[in-house]
From TrEMBL:
UniProt key word GTP-binding: no
Keywords from the named record: Glycosidase, Hydrolase, Signal
Molecular function via GO: hydrolase activity
Native source organism of the sequence: Algoriphagus aestuariicola
Domain named Glycosyl hydrolase family 32 C-terminal: residues: 345-454
SMART domains: Glyco_32
NADP listed as a keyword: no
Family per record: Belongs to the glycosyl hydrolase 32 family.
Pfam families referenced in this protein's UniProt entry, alphabetically: Glyco_hydro_32C (PF08244), Glyco_hydro_32N (PF00251)
Name of protein: Glycoside hydrolase family 32 protein
InterPro entries on file: ConA-like_dom_sf, Glyco_hydro_32, Glyco_hydro_32_AS, Glyco_hydro_32_C, Glyco_hydro_32_N, Glyco_hydro_beta-prop_sf
Glycosyl hydrolase family 32 N-terminal domain residues: 12-324
Length: 467
C-alpha cells in the first residue's frame, strides 16, 4: 500500500477520497444494493454534507458512483433514508416507472450560526433512473421545524394496516426522543406519536433511528427501534441502542426498561437497515459507520476517513427468556474466503484481510492474541462473563486520549464459537455468529503477522479474504 493508502481496508466500503460518516438511504432495486453516505468530498474531516453513493450486486464488493445529492440553499444534506415508492403515491414518477424517494434532513448552517433553533428541516428528492440522478422536490422542506434544535435523520418505512391500507411512517430523532409521522404520499406529514423520554440511555442526543418489524424465534411479531446516541455509549462516545416492543398507531410500547446495545465495541455508529429487499429475501440487513465521534475525524488515515462495518443480518433471539438482537455477518461474505488454513496454537497470518473462525471448547473462556514484529498486540478474551477487546498496545493511539483502551461487554450465556473479521484497520468480533458483537478500529504500525490461540479454542482456521 502506498503511504496515502496505509490502513485502507480490502473488503470494507470506504470512499475513494474525502470524509465519510453515517450510512444513508440504503435500498435494493433491480439487482443492486444501494448505499449512500454522509460525505464531504473536499477534506478528510466533517464539513458541508453531501450524499455519496455506492452500489453492490452482492453486498461485498462496492462500486462508488458520483455524488447523489448536493447541499443547496436550504442547507447541508444530513442523514436520512430512501424508499421505492412502488405505487407512485408521491406522483414523482409513474406507476410503470416508480420513483425512488430519498427523505433527508436539511441542515442550515447559517441559521445555526445566527442562533435560531429551527435550522433542521426534512426534504425529499427523487430518482427515476435507478438512483443515478436525483431531483429535489420543488416544495421542500416537506416537514418544517417547530423550533427544536435537534430535529433530524428521518427513516421512512411503509406499513400495512390491518384494513389493508398502506401508510408511510417516518421515525425522526428529536433531541432525547423520537417522533413518528404519517403520510399518504411522502410529501404531507402529520405527527402521530413520540417515544423515548423515559426509556433507554440518555447520555447524549438521539440520532439516526430505524423502526423494524421482525419476528421472534417463536413467530410472534415484534417492533424493534434502533437509536444511535452520541455521546453516552457503553464504551464512551457514540453507540447504537435498541428497544424491542410493539408499535401501533404511532405508539411504541417497549417490552421492558432494559438497555440494549447492538454492538458493544466502540466503533459501530448510526447504522440502519436496507429498504425494499426482494420478497423472497426475508432478511433484515444492516450496516453501520465503523467509527466513533470521539476520534473519527483524527484517525491516522490520509486521503480518506472512515469505513463502513461489514453488512450484517439482524434477527431476534431468545436468551434465557430475554429477547436480544443478533447481528450475523451476511452470508455473502463467505464468497471472499480463500482456502482455509488450519491453525495451531500459533499461526502466521497470510494477509491483512482474514476471517478467523473457531469452535470453542465449552469452558466459556477464551483468549487469543494478534501481534506483529513490533511487539504490538490486540487481545481478545472472554473471562468471568466478560468479552473484551484490548487495543491498549495495538499501534497508533496518540491521536486521541480515549483510543488506547480495553473494551468489555457482558455475556451471561455461553460462548460456543467465534468469527473474527480483520481488515487493515479494524476487527469485528462475532461471538456465536453474532449473539454478541464488538467492532473496534485498530491502527497497528505494521500489519498483524501472527495469531495465537492461548485458551478455549478447540479448532480454528484462517480464511484469507479476497480483495
Ligand atoms: C450522526 C449525525 C446525524 C446527522 C449526521 C451529520 O452521526 O450526527 O445525526 O444527520 O451525522 O453528518
Amino acid at each position: 500500500a502506498s503511504e496515502n493508502e496505509t490502513y485502507r481496508p480490502d473488503y470494507h466500503f470506504t470512499p475513494a477520497s474525502g470524509w465519510m460518516n453515517d450510512p444513508n438511504g440504503m435500498f435494493y432495486l433491480d439487482g443492486e444494493y444501494h448505499l449512500f453516505f454522509q460525505h464531504y468530498p473536499d477534506t478528510t474531516v466533517w464539513g458541508p454534507m453531501h450524499w455519496g453513493h455506492a452500489v453492490s450486486k452482492d453486498l461485498v464488493s462496492w462500486e462508488e458512483l458520483p455524488i447523489a445529492i448536493f447541499p443547496d440553499s436550504l442547507g447541508y444534506i444530513f442523514s436520512g433514508s430512501a424508499v421505492v415508492d412502488r405505487e407512485n403515491s408521491s406522483g414523482l414518477g409513474t406507476k410503470e416507472n416508480p420513483p425512488i424517494v430519498a427523505i433527508y434532513t436539511y441542515h442550515d448552517a447559517e441559521g445555526e450560526k445566527s442562533g435560531s433553533n429551527d435550522f433542521q428541516t426534512q426534504g425529499i428528492a427523487f430518482s427515476t433512473d435507478r438512483g443515478r440522478t436525483w431531483t429535489k422536490y420543488a416544495e421542500n422542506p416537506v416537514l418544517p421545524n417547530p423550533g427544536i434544535r435537534d430535529f433530524r435523520d428521518p427513516k421512512v418505512t411503509q406499513i400495512l394496516n390491518s384494513d389493508g391500507s398502506k401508510e408511510w411512517i417516518m421515525t425522526l430523532a428529536v433531541q432525547d426522543h423520537v417522533q413518528f409521522y404519517s403520510s399518504p404520499d411522502l410529501k404531507n406529514w402529520s405527527k402521530i406519536g413520540a417515544f423515548g423520554q423515559n426509556f433507554g440511555a440518555h447520555g447524549g442526543v438521539w440520532e439516526c433511528p430505524d423502526l423494524l418489524k421482525m419476528q421472534t424465534p417463536s413467530g410472534e411479531d415484534k417492533w424493534v427501534l434502533l437509536l444511535s446516541i452520541n455521546p453516552g455509549g457503553p464504551q464512551k462516545g457514540s453507540a447504537t441502542q435498541y428497544f424491542i416492543g410493539d408499535f401501533d398507531g404511532g405508539i411504541f410500547t417497549p417490552d421492558d426498561k432494559m438497555i440494549r446495545w447492538i454492538d458493544y465495541g466502540p466503533d459501530n455508529y448510526a447504522g440502519v437497515t436496507w429498504a425494499n429487499l426482494p420478497q423472497k429475501d426475508k432478511r433484515t440487513l444492516f450496516i453501520g459507520w465503523m467509527s466513533n465521534w470521539l476520534y473519527g475525524q483524527v484517525v491516522p488515515t490520509k486521503s480518506w476517513r472512515s469505513a463502513m462495518t461489514v453488512p450484517r443480518e439482524l434477527s431476534l433471539i431468545d436468551v434465557d427468556g430475554v429477547l436480544l438482537l443478533k447481528s450475523a455477518p451476511v452470508e455473502e461474505l463467505e464468497k471472499l474466503r480463500q482456502a482455509a488454513i488450519e491453525v495451531d496454537e500459533s499461526s502466521k497470518l497470510p494477509s491483512q484481510a482474514v476471517e478467523l473462525e473457531a469452535e470453542l471448547d465449552g469452558s466459556d473462556a477464551f483468549a487469543l492474541t494478534l501481534s506483529n514484529e513490533l511487539g504490538e498486540k490486540l487481545v481478545i478474551t472472554k473471562e468471568a462473563g466478560l468479552v473484551s477487546i484490548d487495543r491498549t498496545n495495538a499501534g497508533k493511539s496518540d491521536f486521541q486520549e480515549d483510543f488506547a483502551a480495553a473494551h468489555a461487554a457482558p455475556m451471561s450465556w455461553k460462548a460456543e464459537n467465534l468469527r473474527i473479521f480483520l481488515d487493515a484497520s479494524s476487527v469485528e468480533l462475532f461471538v456465536n455468529d453474532g449473539e454478541l458483537v464488538m467492532t473496534s478500529l485498530v491502527f497497528p504500525n505494521s500489519p498483524w503477522k501472527t495469531v495465537e490461540f492461548q485458551q478455549g479454542v478447540k479448532e480454528g482456521r484462517i480464511f484469507p479474504l479476497k480483495k
